[in-house]
Amino acid sequence: MQNIEAFQNAIQKYGVPKEDVFQTVDLWEKRNIGQVTQTIFALGRTAQTHPEFKGPILGPKLSDKNIREFTEAQLKAGETTLGLQAGYTKGASQSGMSFGKGRKITD
Predict the structure, then answer these.
(1) Range 72-80 contact pairs with CB under 8 angstroms and sequence separation of 24 or more
(2) What count of other Cβ atoms lies within 10 Å of the Cβ of residue 15?
(3) Residue 29 CB partners (closer than 8 Å, separation 6+)
């Protein structure tokens, strides 16, 4: 158990976020091996951010910040746009649509 705790402390010092580190009991009692695997992938992502690391890559690269600057005019134009995510379908509906004959259930 002490080795597991030493590993957890070491990867946190290396830069793995605390939220991505499994609990000791997850590995010791084999309760949540999926979380242990997620921690290993988090370590792989974090290792890619260290320039001195030249080993193999495991998992996707951490995303970089992409800060966007919008003008007031762009922000106001965005307020008037209805996105399709809001359910607007530009007046299209399925009323009057029929595909073949209706189902008739008789005894």
Answers:
(1) none
(2) 14
(3) none
Rounded Cα distance between 76 and 47, Å, is: 42
What mean pLDDT value characterizes the chain?
85
Q: What is the DSSP string of the chain?
A: -HHHHHHHHHHHHHT--GGGSPPHHHHHTTS-HHHHHHHHHHHHHHHTT-TT--S---SPPPPPP------HHHHHHHHTPPPGGGT--TT---TT---SPPP----
Better pLDDT: 85 or 72: 72
Q: d(Cα 58, Cα 63) in Å, to the nearest integer? A: 15
Place of tokens 């080993």: 55
* pLDDT tier at 61, thresholds 50, 70, 90: confident
Whether the predicted model's global pTM rises above the 0.70 cut? no
